[in-house]
Design goal:
Strand order of the largest sheet: 1-2
Number of strands: 2
Low-confidence stretches: none
Structural class: mainly alpha
Mean pLDDT: 88
Largest sheet: 2 strands, antiparallel
Number of helices: 12
Strand content: under 5%
Distance between the termini: 27 Å
Oligomer: single chain
Length: 280
Amino acid sequence: MCLYIGLVFIVAALSFKVSVVPFHMWTPDVYEGAPTSITAFFAMVPKIAAMALLIRLLYEVFPAAVLQWQQIIWMLAVLSMAVGSFAGLMQDNIKRLLAYSSIGNMGFALVGLAGTSTESLAAVLVYLVIYMIMTAGTFGIIMNMRRNGHALEKISDLAGLSRNSPLQAYALAILMFSMSGIPPLAGFFGKFMVFKVAVAAGLYGLAVFGVLCSVVAAYYYIRIIKIMFFDEPVEKFEGNVPLARRVIIGLSVMFVVLYIFAPSPLVDISRDAANVFLYD
């Protein structure tokens, strides 16, 4: 009994770092209030590190309690996907929207974690890498949202971006389509893998619920695209984009688009890493 109590507390602590529901309350406010570069860091590095630690904890320290922690992960995944999908619909600040997007994405990653096989862990690792690259490109574009020396955060500030800055508009559109899981972009394959391993593990309800939440979340990604391409343009952003930021955006878009032609290297590396998690 003491073992299970300790497990619950440790999972709760790591869930706070990963910002899954119900330990997500800090995420939207921190994303909105922090400088965009710091927000980008929070959206990627701590989440990936905490998720890796959670995997090692569950599969190496508590393998005998798999039936107990699998139920916890199942519930965290359901709540995170639901809150991330539906709460994001009401946001008008792009950083708060991405906060709820990250909550939902961590929920999708937990869908894969709920399995117990090498393929399950490999799917989670592939999903996390794809999520990190998409997030890096997205925040690279958001950091370019500046006018008269001030950072902009409203989704409405992207109105008419396709006419003012077509390259940025198309890059952000590709990343938004990928995050929403539209094939043949990389984001689709990430979601496909975690749902596939959930079905293979017999978690049919979790997989179906994840697909439905993904459809709901697609609305607010596509809403951004609609605003960029169909709304009347507002004043242009400042044109001086650092070279490093342009490289990050370009590499992110290239990865998202070209992943379909060579998915095997990332999958193979992830499978090797999953074997280390399970059998090291």
